[in-house]
Amino acid sequence: MLILASQSGSRKAMLAAAGVPFQAIPAHIDERAIEESQAGKPPEVIALLLAEQKAFAVSCEHRDALVLGSDSLVAVDGKRFDKPRSREEAEAHLCFFSGRTMHLHSAAALVRDGATLWTHAATATLHVREMTQEFIEAYLDAEWPAVAGCVGVFRIEALGVQLFDAIEGDHFTVLGMPLLSVLGALRQFEELPA
Asked: Considering the domain boundaries, does residue 110 fall inside one?
């Protein structure tokens, strides 16, 4: 059985909706330390490394299982953003994003017996509309703390869709995992029927 190295509600929902049998076991890694050690590298490279490290950590405890790790990073005007640590930080992120282009990098990795078998990264481009301070406050009144665990401070499947004028890229990438590529890899490794 596949193990998802995550407790992300979005990633679990994607796999479940696609009919993929899996068990979710969170990975315990220091994501911020890994990000800091990779300072200066492109966000998609960091997202891939984080996805791989999550899968590797769980794989070490479940040697025979195929483990899926996934991660997403947001960059706006060359600056990387993590999940907001407070409502005030969420508000600051949204104010910065207003009227700018967001690049959301989602990555996935499959690991078995501590060996990486497959990795993939995808990028979606999201055009954030000009937002008033009143909108941002009302948005956070409705969505905080649900968006505290969301890089980019939005859930596209909820009110977060109102942040954008246009989105280029795969819907699943925006949700936080390049699902179509993951499904292809699972078929390749005979975890799903071809």
From this structure: yes
Residue type, 104: L
- Find out whether 58 and 3 touch, Cβ atoms under 8 Å: yes
> pLDDT tens digit string along 105-135?
999 999 999 999 999 999 999 999 999 999 9
Residue 188 structure tokens: 């390749």
| Residue 38: domain span | 2-188
CA geometry: angle 21, 4, 112, nearest 5 deg: 95
Is 77 noted as a catalytic residue in this protein? no
| pLDDT for 35 | 87
Of 30, 64, 71, 113, the active-site residue reads 71
CA distance 15 to 182: 10
- Domain harbouring 69, CATH code: 3.90.950.10
Cα torsion 186, 155, 164, 126: sign: negative
Helix ranges (DSSP H) in the chain: 9-17, 31-37, 43-59, 87-97, 133-143, 171-175, 179-188
The answer to whether residue 67 is domain-embedded is: yes
Q: What is the amino acid identity at position 188? A: Q
Number of domains in the chain: 1
